[in-house]
Each structure stands twice: as C-alpha cells, then as structure tokens.
C-alpha cells in the first residue's frame, strides 16, 4: 500500500525552517504541490531556491498567521494558482515563557496569538475552500506540553492545549463536509526553537531519560506522521491528537530499561 500525495495541494505555515520545513520537503518529495508560508522573507528565499533546484512545484508566501488579512490573501493566492487546497498544516509556532509570577503579558499574548489564534485564523480562511471541495485534511501542531506541561511553560502549554480543543471542535463542525481535523504532539525535536542540542551533557541526559526510546526526535519523524495523516490512508481518523514523542513518560520511569545490562 502506497501513500499517494501526488498533485495534492498543501499549505504548510511557518515552514521556512525547522519541523515545518521538513514537513514541506517531505510532502514535496511525495509529489504534492507545496505552499510554504512564513513571517521571514529570507527563509522563504532559501525555500524558493531549494524548490527550484529540486523541480518541486509550489509557492512561497509571506504570511503572519496572526493577521486575518495575511491568511486570507495567502488562501486566495493558492486558490488562484492551483484551484484547490487539499491539506493545511498549521505548523507556525513560537515558544517562550517564564514562571507565571514573572511571565509578561507580551509573552503570554505572543504564544496565544501565534500558536492558537494563528491556527484559528488560518483554519477560518481555508474552511470555505475545503467545504466547496467536500474534502480536506487539517493538521495542527500541538505539543507534548499539552499532555504534560513544563514548569515555566504556562503560555506555551495553554496555547497548545487550546490547539487540541480547537482541533476537536473543528473536527465536529467539519465531519459532515468530509474534512478531517487532527493535531499532533511532538516531544523533543532539537530545533532553533528549543536549542536542546546546546544543553550540557548532564541536562541532555536528564531529558533523554524521560523518553521510552531514549533518543531525540527528528523533524523527519514528524513529517512522516504528517504524510500519513494527510493521505487517504488516514481518512477515518479525525478529532484526535497523536503523540510523536518517542514515548515520553509512556511509563513512570522509562529510563529503567535503558540501565539494564
Ligand atoms: N521542536 C520541538 O521539539 C517541538 C515540540 C512540540 C511542538 N513543536 C511545534 O512544532 C512547530 C514547529 O516548531 P520548530 O521547533 O520547527 O520551531 P522553529 O522556530 O524552528 O520554526 C517555527 C517557524 O514558524 C515561523 N513563525 C513564527 N511566527 C510566525 C508567524 N506569526 N507567522 C508565520 N510564521 C511564523 C518561524 O519564522 C519559523 O520558520 C511549532 O508549532 C512548535 O510549537 C515543536
């Protein structure tokens, strides 16, 4: 059985770098037409070069997911260029925070605005197109922080828990239109966002101890899940959150078996 994404039109938000970039490349490699959006033009320029080099089809669009007009303009541009939108991956995100007592309102708002409101606004822009087609796949980046949050991560955890709630409501609202909506919860994927790779060896070891597979995830691990969820093979999956964390805290002490001789 093959995952067939040939000629599907996909929008991946915040795909200039990191996990979103790998999702975009993996979908493009499977033959999908990929629209990469990001808030940073220099990242989009690098994407454009790579797309040209590989002969991949698509568009690169500057779009701040916090802005209604940007999202609507991006969706209109995709419809005009390709006539349809099969897949929306709401990947754009920020992380950052402090303990609640010290957390600034600005940091709270940034997390909620990009991660949650951005997802809401982009969905709102794409839904009419998918409804007209009577088909679509919406995939939202939540986080393991929505399952077990970290101390100092109130704003991020609240935003990503919100994404899970929004996903389920949307699945309910859109099921009758043959549109599925799911979210996914990456665990620890070293990227520029979290700088896991820059931690001390002792810190890294403590973090790895929480993972059943005791290794970092890669953007490709997430991209492979997205390929499946975006495909026809996943047509009976909606309204759920899928953990892609290498089994983070699948048991209370996942490190025990890694210490056995
Ligand atoms: N890396 C991890 O371990 C991890 C874990 C759980 C969830 N996630 C989620 O996965 C997604 C990608 O994370 P990443 O680690 O690749 O981060 P990253 O910082 O490398 O990439 C995020 C991208 O989003 C873009 N972006 C930021 N604000 C934007 C805005 N307002 N509009 C449009 N684009 C914007 C950035 O320019 C960047 O290209 C995020 O939603 C993140 O919360 C990541």
Automatic annotation (TrEMBL):
It comes from the Bacteria. One of its GO terms (molecular function) is oxidoreductase activity, acting on the CH-OH group of donors, NAD or NADP as acceptor. This is Short-chain dehydrogenase. PANTHER family: 3-OXOACYL-[ACYL-CARRIER-PROTEIN] REDUCTASE, SHORT-CHAIN DEHYDROGENASES/REDUCTASES FAMILY MEMBER. Keywords: Oxidoreductase. SMART domains: PKS_KR (SM00822). Residues 8-187 form the Ketoreductase domain.
């Amino acid at each position: 059985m093959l995952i067939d994404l040939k000629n599907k039109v996909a929008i991946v938000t915040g795909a200039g770098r990191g996990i979103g970039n790998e999702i975009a490349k993996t979908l493009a490699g499977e033959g999908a037409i990929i629209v990469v959006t990001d808030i940073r033009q220099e990242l989009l320029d690098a994407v454009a070069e790579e797309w040209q080099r590989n002969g991949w089809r698509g568009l690169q669009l500057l779009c701040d997911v916090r802005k209604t007009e940007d999202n609507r303009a991006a969706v209109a541009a995709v419809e005009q260029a390709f006539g349809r939108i099969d897949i929306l991956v709401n990947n754009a995100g920020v992380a950052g925070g402090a303990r609640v007592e010290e957390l600034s309102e600005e940091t709270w708002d940034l997390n909620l605005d990009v991660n949650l409101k951005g997802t809401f606004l982009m969905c709102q822009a794409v839904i009419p197109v998918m409804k007209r087609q009577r088909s679509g796949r919406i995939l939202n980046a939540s986080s393991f922080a929505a399952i077990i949050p970290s101390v100092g991560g109130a704003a991020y955890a609240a935003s990503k828990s919100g994404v899970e709630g929004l996903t389920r409501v949307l699945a309910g609202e859109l099921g009758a239109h043959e549109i599925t909506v799911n979210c996914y919860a990456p665990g620890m994927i070293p990227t520029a966002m979290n700088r896991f790779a820059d931690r001390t060896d002792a810190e890294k070891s403590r973090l790895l101890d929480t993972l059943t597979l005791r290794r970092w995830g890669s953007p490709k691990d997430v991209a492979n899940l997205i390929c499946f969820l975006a495909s026809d093979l996943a047509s009976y999956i909606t309204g759920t959150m899928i953990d892609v964390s290498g089994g983070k805290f699948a048991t209370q002490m996942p490190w025990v078996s890694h210490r056995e001789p």
